[in-house]
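Appendix B.2, paired examples.
Example (i):
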Amino acid sequence: MITTERKRCKNKTRSGEPCKAFAMGDGYCFSHSPALEKKRLEARAKGGKNSARSARLMGLVPPRLMPVYDRLESALEEVHTGTLESKQASAMAALARAMVAVLTSGELEERVRAIESKVEGKNNAH
């Protein structure tokens, strides 16, 4: 009986250990193959848009705040890469917190008014 053992990727992980993924034709796994970089980026972008985490985020963040969230997420990456000063990012975060506070207090005020009108309606019915 002839068995062929699949070869492992010839790259190393971030920790310096050998990659344990199976190699493809070029000796690298999907994650490390230089020839598949474009496909990896496309897959990452597609996965990010369809991930459960992304879907949960859409449920947590009101639609009108998504552009603010997206900009803050970009700013985080820019600070990390050094293309945005941390002072600017801090100012952006402070302004975003103020926006959220204004929106939250407005939404709470709407809810209180709705509850009060229901209670008044029930009291007037008796």
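Example (ii):
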Amino acid sequence: MKTCFKCGIKKPLSEFYKHSAMADGHLNKCKECAKKDAQKNYRANIKHYKEYEKSRAMLPHRIAARKAYSKTDAFAISRKVSMQKYRNKFPDKYKATTAVNNAVASGKLKKESCMICGMTKAEAHHTDYSKHLDVLWLCRKCHCGVHKFLIGEGNGNRTDRNFL
């Protein structure tokens, strides 16, 4: 048994991370407190950690590993399951996206430049998924920005999102 210096609760050694520099070979802070501190640090330095993870993801060996994994059966199965979950969770969104893709392919709907920044590579943004072909054309960066703004404002209902 050992007492955590953070929460002051006496716990078995299995509730403490191993640490060779400590006299008993375990950290003086319990796993629960250590996890809380790690989460607090991550939230306080989120910008740093996001930049770090982004640069880490672009390392050549990680890119190669992702590329190799994308060619495996495990990836194909995982992607299929994931897509099915998405379709079940967001049927309206899936139908609207499919309708736009089909309309663009058939020539019924013409892709346009981003209505915010003018970038030529744009994607469809729906303000109402029941109106399948009523879309705004936004580049990826502006589209993410619009959704980020919408999530941060209002109560998250679709009715709050009709500002564009």
